[in-house]
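Writing this down once: the sequence line spells out the residues, with the fold written below as integer tokens. This is how one looks:
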Amino acid sequence: MSGEKRASKRLTWRKTAVYICAILLVSLADPRFPTFVAGCVLVALAWSLRIWAFGHLAKNQLLVTTGPYAHTRNPAYFGSFLALLGVSLAAGNAESQRGLWVWGFALFLGVVFLTFYMPRKMKREYPRIQKLFGAEVDRHAANVPDFWPRLTPWRSGQDRQFSWEMVRHNHELSWGPALALVLLGIWTAPLWSPFAVL
């Protein structure tokens, strides 16, 4: 377990690219109040979804099919995608050239997430999960979409309940302050960003 934690904390080129893109998105930000507020609401929904997901998840111990896993097999990734949409909406606007650049850059990031990051992640994750849980994975996949959620939950018969202890165990609570700092950076970007003069 400690080896897994150390591996997850390593700085890879992908993590570096994510950090650079996040810094660039925040630095380019040219927020307007209505879209900023709408973006904040979407970010809050995204974090709530991730908390819901990690409150059910028992990584490598059980194939969870309750809670958000009854709607999508990858609720945490879907939550991350919603967070990207929310941050992007908050950072841009339709009134200024820079605001439109932000939304164009965010569109590019969204396409990269859906066409490169997610397929690559799934290609690596599913064989490992299949090895751990066998036919359960196929049954789950036959009833629950990979990414875009189904509206009604699939009733698998599993009775697992949400647990705040699991949220803490999965280290999800730190996401909230991190997202709040990103949104604060976006709102104050016109005061400090070198791009504010553009």
User: Anything to note?
Assistant: Confidence is low (pLDDT under 50) at residues 1-7. The domain at 2-197 is CATH 1.20.120 (Four Helix Bundle (Hemerythrin (Met), subunit A)). Helices lie at 2-9, 13-28, 33-54, 75-91, 97-133, 135-143, 164-169, 175-192.
